[in-house]
Amino acid sequence: MDAVDDAFETVPRSGFLPRGTRSRAGFDGPLPIGHGGTCSQPRTVADMLRLLDVHPGQRVLDVGSGSGWTTALLGHLVGRAGHVVGVEIEPHLARWGAENVAGAGMPWAQARAADPAVLGLPDEGPWDRILVSAQARRLPQALVDQLADPGRLVVPVAGRMALVVLEGGVTRVSEHGYYRFVPLQTPTPPAGHP
Known about the structure:
The strands form two sheets. This protein has a seven-stranded mixed β-sheet with strand order 5-4-3-6-7-8-9. It has 194 residues and is of the alpha/beta class. It has helices at 3-10, 42-52, 69-78, 91-102, 141-144; strands at residues 31-34, 37-39, 59-63, 83-88, 109-113, 127-132, 147-157, 160-167, 170-178. The protein has one domain (3-17, 24-178): Rossmann fold, CATH 3.40.50.150. It contains five helices and nine strands. Strand 3 (59-63), helix 3 and strand 4 form a beta-alpha-beta unit. The chain is globular, with a radius of gyration of 15 Å.
């Protein structure tokens, strides 16, 4: 069993679904979690986590954390020496996801509401790994800029899964299959700012 399989076994999806949906936790497809959000297909989450290649002790940012399941999976992968922060733009999902992650018993992992004017958490970076569970129209440079060197970013871009690897100041981008996700909401600058 690899680290991702172990994370799936330790952090079951059922604990991050609405009560009425928990009986479908084993369904290998996206499930609605309300407020326009979904809990991603397990096979897709596993593919993304394997591309991300998370190691114990790393600092990881989870963008579009929704119910908190991916944040908790990442928390398991980084272990006690690591640090994971999930951010969610939809306020109801952010509150619920934060409760779910807090209940997972990993104080080194947390979820919170995203600042609608900022993509990611640049003030708390750089991040060794960044996972994005929403589809961007183009590669979000704002997140690439938050990567540590070396670092990895996994993000769906225009229907394809992109892996960004930053190493020695060189950024490489590769594509890994076709996927469907809810759209990534881009930041809205505060009034009075260009």
